[in-house]
Each structure stands twice: as structure tokens, then as C-alpha cells.
Amino acid sequence: MGLRRAFLLLSCGLALLAGPAEAGAQESARVDAALTPRTLLFGDALYVRVNVFADSDLVDVASVELESDFRPFEVERTRRELTRGSALSRARFTIALRCLSVHCLPPTGSSARSTRFSPLVVHLEDENGEQTLEAPLPPVRMASRLSVRESRGEDRWSYDVATLAPVSYPISPGLAIALLWALAVALGLLAALLVAYATTGKAPHRALAARRSPLQRALALVRRAAKRGADERREALERLARELRRAGHPELAERSGALAWSRPEPGEPEIGALVGDVERSARAAGP
């Protein structure tokens, strides 16, 4: 009897051990669900992430559908992603929830409210037909942004979702960017001129004039003096004569010197003709 009883007990134990293994082998899919965050403030977003893992040989992952009831929260958006593998496939759901109703406010005299959702229901099709799986969700705790004393200080709280008018511009953004770039370049040039003035002690136009040759400066002086008095004309022409000699133009230098001390005083037509000849000679000589 003792040996027979021991044999029966051993057989029962092996059957119990084989039962779960056989049930697991027949399982074609499983569901994992999570909520984040588990504690939030009134008006914050709550995210539900559901992963349905299915045997690729037994389940068509495209048939996976999710049935849910998140009241009093409202669904803002749902994202569904399918990943197919040789052995295992996955359907992933990401759901954004938000509650802005009084049903999510903490009860009077309390600092938080706990909400428990109904289990998620997953529908899919495998080799045996349509199957249904359930996944429980943990409770969430929602606190108020107001203290208990602040919430008691008002008769009621409300919110309003308003639709803003379309954005309009008095000037297009592209044109505004182009104008700003042009202004930036102009300001950069102005800054460079101011730096040149600060370092040389000369006005910008004088700083540019300082780069000209002595002969070019003498010509510019003659042009200005042509519209002034006789003394300024004579001095300018004499200076031009000196620069022409240094530059290797003796004939033009003699002509400029003679015009400088001619009688009567040198006139504007004669000065203009001389300046024209000097410029042509300078261009012919090259740099």
C-alpha cells in the first residue's frame, strides 16, 4: 500500500507540473500595459503604453485591436505601431490622456483623488479564431495645483479652451530676414569706417584719400581750387607741377608751373584742359 500511495502522489505532482507548461505552450500572445506618470497634477497629460507580443506563426499582428475605457479622462491622441519579426511580432499602442473635468479634482477637504480604470481588452485573431485578452491598469493619483485652503476660497473653478486666430504678419518673415541682413551689413560697414576714423584720426573720406598717390591728391586739389580764388588756384597748380616732375612728366610740369603764375590769373577752362591732359597721361603710363 505504501509503495502504491507513493506512486500515486508522484503521478499527481508530475501532472500539476505539466499542466502550466502545456498552458504556456498554447499561449499565442500576451499583453503588457503601463501608465506614466502614476502621480500627476490636475491638467497634466497621462500616457498609456500597451505592448501586445504575439507569436508570428499563430497570430496576424495586424488584427490586434485595443478596447479601452479611460473615463473621466479624454483621449487626446493614439499612436499604433506594428513590428513584425520571424518568431515574435509586436503591436504597440501609445495613448495620451488628459482630464480637465471636475471629476478629476480632489474631493473637498482632500489633497488628491485616486482613479482606477477598467481593464484593457485586446482583440486579435489566431489559428483558433478571434481571441480576447485583458490587461489590468494600476490606479493613478491626481493632485490639485491648489491647496485645500485655496480651493475652498472660491465658489467654483472653470476653464475654457479657445481657438486662436490664424497668425498674420504685417511683413512676410522672408522679407524681414532679408532686410535685417541688409541692415546688419550696413551697420558692419559703418562700424569699420568708425574704427578707421578712430585709428587714423581722419574722416572716412580722408582715410580713403590717404590711399591715393601724391599726384592724384594734387589733381583733386586743383579741381577744387578751380572754383575758388586766384591764390588757391596758383598754389594748387604749383603743387601739381612739383608732383608731375616727381612722376616723370616734365612737359606737363612746366605747363602747370607756367599756368600757375600766368597773367592774368589762370582761368577755369585752362585748368580743366590741363587736368584732362594729366589724367590721360597718367592712364597711358599705367599703374
Give structural notes:
There is one protein chain. Helices cover 43% and strands 24% of the residues. It has helices at 2-26, 148-152, 173-200, 204-209, 214-225, 230-246, 250-260, 268-285; strands spanning 29-36, 39-41, 45-55, 65-67, 74-83, 88-98, 112-115, 120-126, 129-135, 140-143. The strands form 3 sheets. A 4-stranded antiparallel sheet has the order 1-3-6-5, with no helix packed on it. The protein has a 3-stranded mixed sheet with strand order 2-10-7, with no helix packed on it. It starts with a helix and ends with a helix. The protein is built from 8 helices and 10 strands. Among the domains are: 28-148, Immunoglobulin-like (Sandwich); 212-285, no CATH class. The longest helix has 28 residues, at 173-200. The protein is of the alpha+beta class and 287 residues long.
Helix and strand topology:
Layout: H1 2-26, E1 29-36, E2 39-41, E3 45-55, E4 65-67, E5 74-83, E6 88-98, E7 112-115, E8 120-126, E9 129-135, E10 140-143, H2 148-152, H3 173-200, H4 204-209, H5 214-225, H6 230-246, H7 250-260, H8 268-285
Parallel strand pairs: 2-10
Antiparallel strand pairs: 1-3, 3-6, 4-8, 5-6, 7-10, 8-9
Helix pairs in contact: 5-6, 6-7, 7-8
